[in-house]
Amino acid sequence: MSDDRIDLDSTVTFHFTLSLPDGTLVDRTEPGQPLTVTLGDGTLIEGLEHALLGLRPGDRQRIIIPPETGWGPRDPALVQWRPRRDFPADMDLAPGLILSFTAPDGQEIPAAILAVEDDRVQVDYNHPLAGRDVVFEVEVVAVEPG
Q1: pLDDT in tens for each of the 146 residues of the chain?
Q2: Phi, psi torsion values for 107, nearest 5 degrees
Q3: Which end of the chain is more exposed for a tag (fewer CB within 10 A), N or C?
């Protein structure tokens, strides 16, 4: 394979948009500020890494990634009820609110409030894109061999 093609340990600079199949924009790079990653370092989801393989600078591609190679399936065990007292008394909790929790390992985890009752709050710790197909549109800017 030519050195300018993306390989398993290439460092790749690219622009992307991430959206849902209905066109809802989730994330994107800003003009003039592409993302640079090394494939295999855990930064990208599996489906995107595999789709980038073999591309060259200047290539553009639209990639539909299913949950299995994206953010995984939704896990019902990650939807949990927590006592209301676990939250600050003055916090205005409402369904749809996204909060950040600190896991035992120190990692920050986003979670969505699903329901609020007098003495408990239902929290969804699944990644917001878990269980969903996603669409990446990429434009490769540069490739450095590994």
Answers
A1: 446 999 999 999 999 999 999 999 999 999 999 999 999 999 999 999 999 999 999 999 999 999 999 999 999 999 999 999 999 999 999 999 999 888 889 888 889 999 999 999 999 999 989 999 999 999 999 999 98
A2: -75, 140
A3: N
| CA within 13 Å, CB half, 11 | 4
For 14, residues 6+ apart whose C-beta sits below 8 A from its C-beta are 29, 34, 35, 52, 138, 139, 140, 141
pTM value? 0.81
Given the structure tokens 């003055």, which residue do they identify? 90
